[in-house]
Specification:
Blueprint: H1 2-10, H2 12-28, H3 33-61, H4 63-92, E1 105-115, E2 123-126, E3 139-141, E4 146-153, E5 158-162, E6 170-174, E7 180-184, E8 192-199, E9 209-212, E10 224-231, E11 239-246, E12 255-261, H5 264-272
Helix pairs in contact: 2-3
């Protein structure tokens, strides 16, 4: 069956010519206008079916290449999306003039080849590594939200410390407030995390969106994280602790974005000093 598919795929032009030639011979041999229209309709139907089959076969064999191209395009679009976010944020802040239309972040695609969600400390393995410009401390997200941060790399693979790991703390904030806190996993459900250290003066409501704060070189400001579901009771009267339903479905991770910060090395050097 595969050989037949390949034959049809490679010889579609010849087969189309053959069908049209046969239809032409039939038409020439028919003097009756009714018969001529009947044969023309039949020939068109055959040719249409042939093209439909060729399209299906090409779609099947080109699916992987098309998917890869779409993913690369998505990475470019996400980079542009982040640039526009940066422009809007600076426009809204009248202290920053003129508006900088560039972005220090760009995105590349990686595929998840290993993932755990039921361990006390969970990690994710990607099929991109040092040779693909992946480095330690780069952020990782999917089309829904934040996934984790690169913890180690080899030439062809990267190990990501998952958001479902209590060792990872990400600086986040409520979308409409600048006050920030830390997002950390409580080790229970893969669907929820805890937003701690948020000033109690912050007004919140269930359904409020939680986003990255931008106070880390790993993630740009404003990447989606999840939504607030409720406040958790804690003894500390100075800070809020909120339960957050994560946007990312860690049960179904497939393709992710590796977030490259063009100014990450400069930031790291300054912080190390």
């Amino acid at each position: 069956m595969y050989s037949l598919f390949r034959f049809l795929q490679r010889n579609s032009a010849f087969l189309t010519w053959l069908v049209l030639a046969a239809a032409s011979v039939i038409l020439l041999s028919q003097g009756n206008p009714y018969h001529r229209s009947l044969w023309m309709g039949s020939a068109n139907q055959v040719v249409g079916s042939l093209y439909e089959s060729m399209s299906m076969f090409r779609g099947y064999f080109g699916l992987r290449e098309t998917n890869e191209e779409l993913l690369r395009s998505m990475g470019v679009l996400e980079s542009e999306n982040q640039r526009l976010r940066s422009m809007i944020a600076q426009y809204e802040d009248q202290r920053l003039q003129p508006v900088d239309t560039s972005s220090q972040y760009h995105f590349s695609i990686a595929h998840v080849v290993g993932n755990s969600i039921a361990q006390a400390e969970n990690y994710i393995t990607l099929d991109r590594g040092r040779l693909d410009s992946v480095k330690v401390n780069l952020g990782v997200a999917d089309h829904n939200g934040v996934v984790g941060i690169v913890a180690a790399v080899s030439d062809h693979y990267a190990l990501v410390i998952s958001l479902l790991n209590p060792k990872l703390r990400i600086s986040v904030k409520l979308k409409d407030y600048e006050s920030f806190g830390s997002l950390v996993w409580d080790g229970k459900s893969c669907e929820y995390a805890t937003l701690a250290d948020l000033p109690r003066s912050v007004q919140y409501a269930p359904g409020d969106t939680v986003v990255t704060s931008g106070y880390s070189g790993s993630f740009p400001k404003g990447l989606p994280v999840g939504t607030v579901t409720e406040a958790l009771d804690r003894d500390d009267d100075n800070f809020l602790v909120l339960r957050v339903k994560l946007f990312t479905d860690f049960n179904r991770l497939g393709n992710v974005y590796v977030i490259h910060n063009d100014k990450q090395e400069e930031l790291n050097k300054l912080e190390n000093q």
